[in-house]
Amino acid sequence: MNAVAENAKRARDRETEFLKAASLGDLDVVRRCVAEEGVSTSCVDSRRAGALHLAACRGHTAVLAFMTSHGADVDAEDEQGRTGA
């Protein structure tokens, strides 16, 4: 695997970790991914559901507060037209 492909894989892995943490309400991991690893609060999964969507549908209010204070787009829609707000 070349360097570009390796970097892309690492970025996807960080985004996957971030999305999973948001879904589980793991604020410490969410914070680390954004602050230390540079993961965008706007990244989405294969269904275009963002971390905000995943945290909102599970009631993780602390993650929601962190995400919105760090620029998460509350109007972003998943593939079914739902927002995370």
List the helices and strands and how they pair.
Blueprint: H1 3-24, H2 27-35, H3 51-56, H4 61-69
- Strand-residue fraction? under 5%
**Annotation, overall tally of beta strands:** 0
What would the average pLDDT be, to the nearest integer? 89
Number of helices in the DSSP assignment: 4
- Binned, the helix content reads 40-55%
Largest sheet: none
Radius of gyration: 13 Å
Low-confidence stretches: none
What structural class should be given to the helix and strand makeup? mainly alpha
**What is the domain tally?**
1
The H/E string reads HHHH
Termini distance?
39 Å
Give the overall shape, derived from the CA principal axes.
globular
Task: Give a description of the structure.
- Helix 1 (3-24) packs antiparallel against helix 2 (27-35).
- This protein has 85 residues and is mostly helical.
- It has helices at residues 3-24, 27-35, 51-56, 61-69.
- The chain has one domain (3-69).
- The radius of gyration is 13 Å and the shape is globular.
- 54% of the residues lie in helices and 0% in strands.
Main features:
54% helix, 4 helices, 85 residues, mainly alpha
